[in-house]
Amino acid sequence: MTLKAFSQGRPKNPLPPVEDPPQLALSISVSEESAKMEGKEGKIEAFLAQARKTLAPYCRHIVHNRYFQLAMFVALLLALFLPDMWVITNRPNNSDLDVLLTLVGVMFIFELLVQSIGMYKSYLYSFFFWMDLCGAGSLLLDLSYVMQSDQEVGTETVSNNAIIMRAARVAKLGARAGRFTKLAKLLRFLPGMGNVDDGAGTAKLISSKLITALSTRTSCLIILLVIIMPLFNLWAYPEEDWSPNSFVKILEACYVRYPSRFSLQLDELTAFYAQKSYQPWRISARDDVQPPVQVAAALPRTFPALTPLRMSNNMVFVGNYLKVEFNFASPNQLDAWMNVVLLLLVMVLMITFSLILSQSVSNIVLKPLEQLLTQVRQMASTIFQSVTDMEVVMKEDAHDDRSDQEESVEDTNKFGNETQLLAKVVQKLAVISEITMNKPVLDAQTLQNLAEGDRAVISGFQGTTQDTEFADRGEEVENVLDMEAIELAQRAMVENAGLSMDLLDSWNINPLELDKARNHVAAMYFCSSHNHGVEFDSVVMGNFLSDAESGYVKSAPYHNWFHAVDCTHAVWRLLGLCAADVYLNREERYAVLVSAVCHDIGHPGLNNGFLIETSHELALRYNDKSPLENMHCSRMFELVGQARCNIFSTLSKTQYHEVRKVCVEAILHTDNAQHFSMIKDVQMLYEVSADIWDASRQLFLQEDDPSLAQEAVDALRVPDNRKLMVNLILHTSDISNSMKPFRISRIWAWQVLEEFFLQGDAEARIGVPVQALNDRNTVNRPFSQVGFIEFLVSPLIFAAMRILPATEHLAVQMLMNARSWQKQWENEGKVPPSDHDKKLLNERIIKMENKFRSCQAGKSAPEKLDR
Fold first, then answer.
1. Can you tell me the distance from the alpha carbon of 40 to that of 2, in angstroms, rounded to the nearest whole number?
2. If you count Cβ atoms within 10 Å of the first and of the last residue's Cβ in the chain, which end, N or C, has fewer?
3. What contacts 41, CB < 8 A, 6 or more positions away?
């Protein structure tokens, strides 16, 4: 089976076409028409969306322009006060008022459209959208060409007309109150309700949102009270001044019964209204009535001084015979003044209560919360070194999102940096806690669920970690060497030995297939000064390599000189591919290369478990703590202690102590007991600075420039992280056989299994329990290699590829090898596995492949794995 990276295209239908019946053809034509209609609608929607996207920046610029805001504020004041001012100043008509209010209405509609386009995400269908729509619509009630202003009341229906008059007054008041909704937008200019910067703390943002919510609701409550309270008197018995109706009735009674006294009665009544704020200015007979002679002589009676300038002030009362017109200018002016006072009162109430709420919220919420979140911010800053970077990223994200927001009081999705930072800290702590405390890489439950062969693979690999100090010596001045000349000389040496540089620069080299001379030359090239910058005597290095080769046990099938050369080659390759020169100093790179040469020197072909079980001299000497690794370190520095092999003689005392620490630390971490703790350390390094690693991944993978991003370089230059990288590179190289091409990987697998079997033979001879993986009669070789890859190699390389993306191709090759081992297990076993067993193993490999995909941060699809 092959792991597919990309989906394949569907094959064409191989069947020949068939003619459609008429009904089917008709349905197809209808479907095509509907599809065309839907396509047109989709194009229209796409066009509108594109137009809105194009116009949105310009609309936002207009909305935030201070001159536009000033113009809209003036328009709002005109809409609120102009109708009443026209009444107070007793303007003859509303023609000029209609023009002004029409212009104001156009401005309101323009503002509504501009805000809907520019801030469609935060404004459209929001609270302020409906308030602006209501305020703009209320202007219609003040336009004379929309609302009829002439008023004529009949004496027969005085009660009903009073109710109608009151309803008209309520409607007029509602027009003013409707514009209060736009006045609520002025609240944002009050203290605590203005625009809050993106960098403001959580407490300020919450306080601003809370003040805005409370103030707008308080303002709406005041407005609703102004509108609703008068409605309760609408259906009550009208308490009206009925004197105009009485005036008409008395005159008509005199008109009918005593025509001769009509003129006198008229004088008495007009004298009565001389003390009133409203007075009759014209009394006339109805057009359809022929009055008596005495009445006709007195009518029409007109008082020019009382003639109303505004026709809206002319109140007409019509009886059976007479028509009396009253000038209500003074009451209407008083009513207009009261409207103005009411407007001002509502404005004062809105602003006053908003300020009170602002102060209360500040004292109750802002100050205590600000102190609390300041402490949270300080604590978070001490938890992670990457907190500052996280904060910068959040500010940049918030700045990008701000273009879609009108103002902070309308943004319901953004909270302060402390809250976001705390959420990230908690999330990261949870991940780190899960890595370090919750569960080991392979816990008891996992082991219990594994088959006997799988448990044998990981037997003896768990152990405890040891802490060692690693001081940062700082940057040293590099020796002035002619690196180009050294490299040319080394390449000439390699070519003269019959080796190809293309072979050395690949993962296809196999020291088992090279003779002694070529392995020596290869090791000499890997340790050359041009690879690290530390000067040494080439003769001394040659002696060191020769004596190191002699120190390896030739009878060991796996842990021999060929494995040392193979490991050194892997270290050299990883140092170059992973750009180690930008975060490891020259002494560290030199130390890890030399450590690779001697990391298994003197290995007897028996593991630590056997040495401890049999109370071997090495186990007694090193108190059962990594006896083999301690012995390798000791043998290496015994070798260096000889003058003819002292490859560290050119180093200063400080440099030598640093190199010794690096060598000891790196070799001790090749103990498989350190394997799972190293995986956790690498996982924690990634989780603590995940943003850095993900951001620098693409730069790190560029073949033409493999240097890391600066943030990643700074993170890796931390002393503890440098120590971890050295240990990781050497340990990964030590177990890199499973990540080589399958032909080479298979050869090394046979070698290591043969060494296990020889130990199993020894265990059987001396009567100690034979470890399951060491029994040559029961171990299934291909199956054991799948388990080795699954439980030991893959967790390490998957963790490493997140920090060192250049190792990704090793994981790809490892998964390809797992599939090859699976195929060999299915086809070459003595007893063919059952379908159930095949399915289980296939699921295990698929799980590894899925894990690989999840670790490929920054890629849309995993690499294609050929099997």
1. 43
2. N
3. none
CA angle (648, 654, 655) in 5-degree steps: 40
Q: Name the CA radius of gyration of the chain, rounded.
A: 47
Q: Which candidate, 319, 328, 245, places its Cα nearest to that of 279?
A: 328
**Angle (CA) 240 243 245, round 5°:** 95
Pair (607, 486) in one structural domain: yes
The answer to whether 232 and 393 are in contact (CB under 8 A) is: no
- The answer to the question of residue 89 being in a domain is no
Three-point CA angle 552, 558, 564, nearest 5°: 50
Identify the DSSP state of 337. Answer: H
**pLDDT digits over 804-836, tens only?**
888 999 999 999 999 999 999 988 767 788 899
In this prediction, residue 2 carries a pLDDT of 35
Domain that holds residue 252: 243-333
- Candidates 664, 814, 794, 640; CA nearest to 727 is 664
Higher pLDDT, 815 or 388: 815
Residue with tokens 């593991």: 607
Token readout for 625 is 């703590």
Question: What are 346-355's pLDDT values in tens digits?
Answer: 777 777 777 7
Q: What is the mean pLDDT of residues 406-430?
A: 54
**Residue 407: exposed, middle, or buried by beta-carbon count in 10 A (0-12, 13-18, 19+)?**
buried
Whole-angstrom distance, CA of residue 359 vs CA of residue 348? 16
Which among 793, 806, 804 is positioned nearest to 851, based on CA atoms? Answer: 793
Alpha-carbon distance of 715 to 804, in angstroms, equals: 12
pLDDT of residue 737: 95
- Pair of tokens at residue 22: 């008429």
Residue 184 falls within a domain, yes or no? no
Using DSSP's 3-state secondary structure scheme, residue 282 falls into strand
